[in-house]
Amino acid sequence: MKLQVKLALYNTLTKLAIILFTGLLILLSIEKISYNHIELRLEDDERETLKNLGSKDINSHLTRLEKYTDYNILQEEFITITPIKFQPTATNGNKFTTETRNIEHNEQTYRILTHQFNFNNHSYQLEIGVAITSIEELKSIIKRFTLLTLIIALALTLASDLIFTKFLLAPFYQIIDRKLIKVNDPLNFDYEKIKTSTQDFELLDDSISSLMKKISALFSLEKQFIANVSHELLTPISIISSRLENILLQEELSEAGENKMHASLKTLNRLKSIINSLLLISKVENNQYDKADVVMIAGVIMEIQEELEDRMDEKRLSFTNNMKYIYSIMGNRPLMHTLLFNLVNNAIKYNVPKGSIIIADELKDDVYILEITDTGTGMDQKQIENAFNRFEKFETDERESYGLGLAIVKSITAFHDIKVKIDSVKGKGTSVYLVFNRE
Amino acid sequence: MNVLIVEDEKGLALEVDEFLSHEGFTVEHARTKRSASEKIFVNNYDFILLDLGLPDGDGFDLLKMLKGMGEREDAVIILTARGAVDDRVSGLEQGADDYLAKPFSLNELLARMHAITRRKHRLESNDINVKGLKINIQNRTVTYNDERIALTKKEFEIFNYLVLNKNRVISRTNLTEHVWGDVLEINSDSNFVDVHVKNLRKKLSAYIPIDWFETVRSIGYRINI
Questions:
Q1: Would you say the ipTM is above 0.85?
Q2: Cβ–Cβ gap B11/A270 under 8 Å
Q3: Could you read off the pLDDT of A241-253 as tens digits, one per residue?
Q4: How far does the CA of residue B105 sit from the closest CA of chain A (Å)?
Q5: Which residue of chain B has the CA closest to A405?
Q6: Residue A202 and residue B89: Cα distance in Å, rounded?
Q7: In terms of domains, do B65 and B167 share one?
């Protein structure tokens, strides 16, 4: 979950809690206040009624020991005076209850004051009720109102929080995007500060920048090291190789000596190849090549086919080019040539006599796929996993292999942002897929 | 023809010197940028073999200086182990005639020098005669009694290279490198070049006997003229 959303959710939840709490508080206090108010009124009514016991209307009922009932038109209030069994000390305090009463087939909830008193040597029970339906209605209105406020407040705070946190976190996402995600090459790092008034983000920005400075220093150091190694190692090789060649020119050299010289030159050449391959890999990984050429894949494949034609003829391999698309990338042409050359060369090297090599391609919405399939010796799963490791070699009838071909392939593909996939069945053949990202 | 070797590695300079002297060149040697610029200032050379990494500066500066002098015909071949990617490109752009990465084969160096000589001086006779076969470097053709022998580009390269380095065993690796250039890992397949040589010999032997085109077992080939 994004930080922005988390912050907004947290704010919303705390606000929700506050509103719920206040809502409940209001609801409870309204009940309490209104009951209190009603009870005061009921006590007023009680005093009034007791004062009027002597009035003609009530008195006539009381003397006949009949129940006296009075209520207004809408049955919102009622008074009943009921004679009860005589109790000498009947006068007691007021009792309040909430009850539902049915008056003239009209059921309502009342707050009722009950009071027992003695009058003319008889005991009576006085009940005064006030309908509280209106209060219940008020309560439900308040409930609904609270709910509505709650929902509106929630929506508003959520929206405002989202907008605010988005604004607040914008520099943060900018830093992530510009300083971390889009950086492929530490040497071309964008040191321009992201505008923000938040100290924490400034700190983050500065830390990333200083980290990048360290990395790019290391990068240039490595570049320097590669240049030094190539010079320091290749120069002595060059001297020895020239020296051996000069010895070969001497006419008094025995045939055995000559053979040994040639063998030494060959070994030296091997050393040179290994150093050059490792240097190539390091240089590619160190971003020392540019990607300024428009490289047409089909064109490179045709070139390589021409270059390797004789080798294929020798093994009597059939070469089928089923490419349907003219697809070009921005890249480094010599590197792309080396990449495809290595792959086609492997397809020849590990093929069986009279086997075949098929080149095909496929254009999808987001990717372009180049497929090189051979009918060679194939690899098992473990071999595929190790195929791209440096100095990994497979059984081959070729006399020498340094096991750096696929390591070179790996570094060049990574440099060009190409994915490599290998499908292989031992004894049947291998398919190598190059997946180019279309952007 | 005179050659100036600008190279701070004495060992290498001596070997190149020995080889080229053997081939009939007059060789001079400069170890620093300073002494090289003095020599270039005083003498005209047919070839300047230029190392880029010199103790007191960059070989490119010498190239710039030479090009700034005008009226100079000195051919420049850059020899370097610096291996920087752009060096080859910028070297050629700045007017170098060729570029060889160290370690290089002396035979290859010689072949390059010959090629430059041909290009620069437009030799009157472009044809080289080998046992009745005429090699035309300009048109890259081989003819026998005015009949053209259909050789592929690579077969021609191999034949030409072997003729240029006549009477000398040329190893497969050397030949491969000459024909294929710096394609990496390629050198590992030493029989790479055999196919081409086999086809070349077949084509030539259709016209004349080729007992002079010798296969030196487990090493390479030699043309004895």
A1: no
A2: no
A3: 999 999 988 888 8
A4: 7
A5: B185
A6: 43
A7: no
